[in-house]
């Protein structure tokens, strides 16, 4: 397994590998995609695991977990749309 790099080390690697113009852009996009992926994983762990898990969440704190479900889903959907729109515009 590779060593774990700090965010600054990753940024420096992107700058070194891709140059001063593309490196910062790639680094920002890489960070955004990683964060989006993490949010989607959280959504799937909570709401796509099983009907029993959703029932348990609803029983424990239905309104709270409903707000979280809506917020995570909308954020992932909107951010994914933002990525694809930016690609088509560019």
Summarize the structure.
With 90 residues, the chain is mostly helical.
Walkthrough of the structure:
With 90 residues, the chain is mostly helical. It has one domain. 89% of the residues lie in helices and 0% in strands. The protein has two helices and no strands. It has helices spanning 7-47, 51-89. α1 crosses α2. It is elongated. It starts with 6 loop residues before the first helix and ends with a helix.
Secondary-structure map:
Blueprint (H helix, E strand, L loop, with lengths): L6 H41 L3 H39 L1
Helix pairs in contact: 1-2
Number of domains: 1
Task: Return residue spans where pLDDT drops below 50 for at least 5 consecutive residues.
Answer: none
**Which percent range describes the beta-strand content?**
under 5%
Figure out the total of helices: 2
Shape: elongated
What key attributes describe this structure?
90 residues, mainly alpha, 89% helix, elongated
């Amino acid at each position: 397994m590779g060593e774990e790099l700090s965010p600054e080390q990753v940024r420096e690697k992107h700058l070194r590998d891709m140059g001063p113009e593309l490196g910062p852009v790639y680094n920002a996009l890489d960070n955004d995609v990683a964060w989006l992926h993490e949010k989607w994983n959280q959504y799937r762990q909570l709401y796509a695991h099983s009907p029993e898990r959703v029932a348990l969440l609803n029983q424990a704190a239905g309104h709270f977990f409903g707000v979280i479900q809506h917020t995570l889903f909308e954020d992932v959907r909107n951010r994914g749309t933002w990525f694809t729109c930016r690609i088509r515009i560019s």
